[in-house]
Amino acid sequence: MLLNVKNLDMYNKRVLIRLDLNVPIKNKIILSKARIISSIPTIKLVINKGAKIILTSHLGRPKEGIFNENFSLLPICKELENILNIPIKLIKNYVYKRDLNLDILYKDYKIIMLENVRFNKGECENNKCLSKFYSSLCDIFIMDAFATAHRKHSSTYGICKYCKISCIGLLFKKEIKFLSKIISNPKRPMVSIVGGCKISTKFNILNSLAKISDYLIVGGGISNTFIAINHNVGKSLYEPNFISLAKNLINKYNIPLPLDCRVGKNFSELSKSYVKKLNDISYNDEIMDLGDLTINYYCNIILKAKTILWNGPVGVFEFPNFRKGTEKISKAIIKSNAFVVAGGGDTISAIELFNIKDKISYISTGGGAFLKFIEKKTLPILSILSN
Fold it and tell me: What tens digit of pLDDT does each residue of 224-274 get?
């Protein structure tokens, strides 16, 4: 049984909170603050309990063992200071430091932040020594980085083995609550929309969702592999080795397939778009979005839904000429009377682009963890915390 973070005595105790502050940053400017804002309730809870707080997160994929300013948590640290109106001390080169005296820092700072955990050698390999080091810094560990919960890293999974008290945070608990609702007893009809580049990376989740959905709509490069069962896809991204598996899925489950598509001659923002029936796709065409017939077909299905799970855009929505499919699908989603759960980085970007955030029932901060929980109905971190 999981410990309830609200019931823990934290007064004057060191509490390490592992957050997911992996936000897009360009020229040291934060482009989306969604994950930072989502982390605030747990931080405020721990502040109110009188704890000595240690925050940490990963950011991007830097080379382990090497500090890289482009992946520093400093901009995020400053943003948290502004939101909380509390001074935060960011420290780096902290691993295995014998003279690391946090109590001295707490005299001037209420919160300490450890620099990007992925600068530390062994983080992604779940190094035992590194996990033990993290645990030595705190009395209580709170795992609130839901988006990383499908991986076994030292600062997420490994630390739990050595901390006497470990639990999930408020955000993590909220994620599990809403995702459990959609997979345990969804209102019917349930429509799942899954986009993405490769069917190979999402085949297991497609299979799981197909079993519980009344309709499974696929988009992006995933859709191209389904189209390739009976049609030429030109130079479009698809996976020949998965055509037979895709065929098995459509034979077993209700997966509506495209009627037409938008193609371009090259993968470029400047490429013109042409709507073509599937039989008319030529060898120098590249499928990058849904066609108008398909958009109408899919939107009619979505408008009748009572539950919608959305993970991934259905086309190259970053390019204006190939945005229509994702935009129309997103508008149909919010026009429906369905309970909607959306997740994944690109999905969140589309939601922000089309300004529909307030009309989605729940937006998950996770991508891989979002899909893994739906597929397995659990996550590695939940198993270890239950013990």
Answer: 999 999 999 999 999 999 999 999 999 999 999 999 999 999 999 999 999
d(CA 262, CA 352): 23
Is-contact 289 324, C-beta < 8 A?
yes
pTM listed for this prediction: 0.86
Catalytic residue among 158, 345, 366, 367: 345
Active-site annotation holds for 345: yes
Distance in angstroms (rounded) separating the CA atoms of residues 8 and 167: 10
61 flagged as catalytic:
no
Whole-Å CA distances, 102 to 107, 110, 324: 9, 11, 53
What angle do the packed helices 170-184 and 34-48 form, to 10 degrees?
120
Q: Most distant CA pair in the chain: distance in Å?
A: 71
Is residue 262 annotated as part of the catalytic site, yes or no? Answer: no
The single residue of 35, 49, 202, 323 carrying the catalytic annotation is 35
User: Active site includes 35?
Assistant: yes
The two three-digit tokens of residue 163, written as one number: 């901390």
